[in-house]
Design goal:
This protein is mainly α. It has helices at residues 2-14, 25-43, 61-67, 71-82, 90-97, 101-107, 115-118, 149-153, 160-173, 190-199, 218-222, 229-242, 261-265, and strands at residues 142-143, 200-201, 211-212, 268-269. 10% of the residues are buried. The mean pLDDT is 82.
């Protein structure tokens, strides 16, 4: 028994019970490739890469990180660019990003800023190339009754057709007595009327041909823009029954356009 125990212990100590590992052909291939790489590194311990110039304002996050910039520094540069601002020198780039002096010294040799940064007085475009736009003509304030077609068309919003309507309306009245009459012209918007009021006024009414409301016949009254046959007839009837019409009597005449009374009165004689 003692002899058996001693024999088993010797076998346990002397025998290798680990599984035998057989190297496959694929593993042998990779090992040989690794050996070639190691030998190449031994011959060329450091491979040099050519650095290209770049505008640091447009550096990508990946390249910035690869060059050694931290995430907060990259975020500061991005926020600066979102404000549509540019760093125009290595010093400004450092002030914006907060990179260290050593990192700036490593990066700055490859910085490339636009030519106009280095030569602010130079321009790639000859002076003669720049187009000079004519200055907007300053309109003088004119009497609307003296305005020509060209004068009217200088106002923003008045074209060929509307200017003709204004002149036609002036011809019908024999002249305007109030700028409020622009509202009677078809096609004039409130915005355009406001522009007309900036440049035209009524200076004098002396040349306006007036109608004598106490002597004019129904036919003569009917030729006036604001009077149609029924109103003209009511005017003649009213004065035949009440005598001469005064300005304060106009609102008592049946059918009289009271909303235009102030304008109509300026065309009448009493």
């Amino acid at each position: 028994m003692f002899f058996i125990i001693i024999t088993l212990q010797l076998v346990y100590c002397l025998m290798d019970f680990n599984p035998i590992h057989q190297t496959s052909s694929q593993e042998q291939h990779w090992i040989s490739l690794q050996n070639k790489l190691d030998s190449t590194k031994a011959v060329n311990p450091k491979q040099e890469y050519k650095e290209y110039s770049y505008n640091p304002n447009f550096i990508s996050d990946f390249k910035a990180y690869k060059l050694g910039m931290t995430l907060p520094q990259i975020n500061r540069l991005r926020a600066f660019r979102e404000l549509n601002k540019f760093a125009n020198s290595p010093e400004e780039f450092q002030a914006v990003t907060g990179i260290s002096d050593s990192l700036l010294e490593a990066m700055a040799p490859n910085f490339k800023f636009p030519d106009w940064v280095n030569n602010p007085r130079s321009s790639s475009y000859p002076k003669s190339k720049w187009k000079e736009f004519p200055k907007k003509e300053t309109l003088k304030i004119l009497d609307i009754n003296q305005a020509s077609k060209e004068d009217l068309m200088k106002v923003f919003g008045i074209g060929d057709a509307i200017s003709d309507r204004i002149l036609k309306q002036k011809e019908i009245f024999g002249g305007f007595v109030s700028m409020d009459q622009m509202t009677d012209i078809w096609g004039l918007t409130p915005e355009v009327i406001a522009e007309i009021d900036k440049y035209f006024i009524i200076e004098s009414l002396t040349k306006i041909k007036k109608i004598n409301i106490n002597t004019a016949s129904i036919k003569e009254l009917g030729q006036f823009y604001y009077f149609k046959y029924p109103i003209s007839k009511n005017i003649v009837t009213y004065r035949s029954m009440n005598g001469d019409i005064k300005i304060e009597d106009l609102s008592n005449i049946k059918g009289f356009p009271v909303d235009k009374l102030k304008i109509i009165a300026l065309y009448l004689e009493f």
